[in-house]
Design goal:
Its main location: nucleus. The chain has 178 residues and is mainly alpha-helical. It contains four helices and five strands. Strand 2 (50-51) and strand 3 form a beta hairpin. The termini are far apart.
């Protein structure tokens, strides 16, 4: 088979490892940076490695950053441990017992699962940020709702009161004229 990233011919047994390494090589060429460091208390989801040349912080997920965080070495005694599933989504309660070095079926499953969890946390932080912004806007609207400035700027017209005033004025003018 052929690698979808580089186009070289590869053996099907080592295809997943090769494509992962190939992807990391091309991913390192792209820049995901910001001039601002991530300020989430107690959380280190993003790489935040400072690049002095560009003056930017790396904004890849920490577990997925191929440039600044290397995967720990796998020992000979490590077991894969990937939760096994049936029919794609039904967990069986069992775990893969194959040695981690030789298990190509679940290659780097831990890294992908941590990235999935971190992305969910990022989505939750973004949703929380949206809700805080909505709350701020509602509080601002509530604070300015009954203010004197609002009453002075927005004219309201009470027809009943104005009708009484105009009748009183007309009655007063009629009495003065007689």
């Amino acid at each position: 088979m052929y690698c979808i990233t580089c186009g070289h011919e590869i053996h099907s047994r080592t295809a997943v490892k090769h494509m992962e390494k190939c992807f990391i090589k091309y991913e390192a060429q792209a820049s995901f940076g910001s001039r601002h460091r991530t300020r989430i208390d107690g959380q280190s989801m993003f790489c935040d490695y400072y690049n002095p040349v560009n003056g930017t912080y790396c904004k890849r997920l920490r577990v997925m950053c191929p440039e600044h965080f290397k995967d720990p070495k796998v020992s000979d005694t490590d077991v894969c441990g990937c939760p096994l599933v049936r029919n794609v989504f039904e967990p069986t309660g069992e775990f893969c017992r194959a040695p981690k070095k030789s298990c190509l079926k679940h290659y780097q499953w831990e890294k992908l699962r941590r990235a999935e969890i971190d992305m969910e946390r990022v989505r939750q932080w973004l949703r929380l940020d949206e809700l805080v912004e909505q709350e701020r806007n509602i509080r601002l609207a509530m604070a300015s709702r009954a203010g004197v400035l609002g009453l002075m700027l927005h004219s309201t017209y009470n027809h009943e009161v104005m009708e009484r005033i105009t009748k009183a004025n007309e009655n007063g003018k009629l009495k003065e004229g007689s």
